[in-house]
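Input chain follows. Return structure tokens only.
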Amino acid sequence: MTMRVTAAAVALGLMGLVGTTASTQPPGPSTNAPGATRAQFERWMTELSNWGRWGEDDQLGAANLITPAKRLQALALATTGTTVSLGHDVVDAAGSDPNRPFGLNMIISFDPPRIRDRLDIDYHGGFFTHLDALCHVVYDGAIYNGHAMRDTVTDAGCDSLGITGLRDGVVTRAVLVDVPRLRGVPYLEPGTRVYREDIEAWEARVGVRVEPGDVLLIRTGRWARRAAMGDVRGSAGMDASFLPFLSDRDVALFGSDTAHEVANNVPGLDLTVIHKFIIVARGMNLFDNLDLEAAADTAARLGRWEFLFFASPVRVPQGTGSPINPIAVF
């Protein structure tokens, strides 16, 4: 009897050790656990901020990092002349945004014959490809560079930091990180987190490094999954622990094929921590819901994961963003 109790105790002890090892494994791709705490995030919002870096009247934020020399570097990457759209159709085979669907209202005249249309699109959210302006997101009552939200944004729009700050367009180098290819899957499942380790592993694998002034693009395979599975809710997203990477590399703009956020990203905070850090703290315009499928296939075929990137938002005075169709040139 004593021996059996001892054996059971040993077995329970071993199980406890196994459980302890698993639970103390650091957050990362193997655990899919949140990698940042609320205290860390709140510290990053101030310590890694770009507020004041380009003056109190700055309207560009991190886009200031896209210098003429950076544009010329990017233009040199266009060697084959191949162009690829990075935008998704406003309506695809599975439909549109069910909460805010796209509207196409035809205006047809027969005498005289004339064909026009009127577009209705509420583009912010998790479906339409768009570019966020720097006045779009608020943290602790302030938008980028410390402007008080209540003093800056009215029913007439954004008095500062609207989308027309980028009226001359974005022309720079882009680096595309294909996380499903890295992990050996066709697409990431909803709720899957993308970590800094994924980005750095991809850099090592393809021999390309994210540099100051770049647009960093992350493919999760969201649209490939939609094509295979239909209109299934949810998506993968960025784990908040990756955010210091944007500061370390001085990235100018960020984009992915999702709206970036993942549930329970920073315990105790709301869902939009990625938007808050990127737009409010870093002053980076954010590309949401890109379609990176064709670009990833082209990059894989050519063996090139860096390319010329350009995007031009609609010039909406005082607007909070713009629907957009960015272009990659290889």
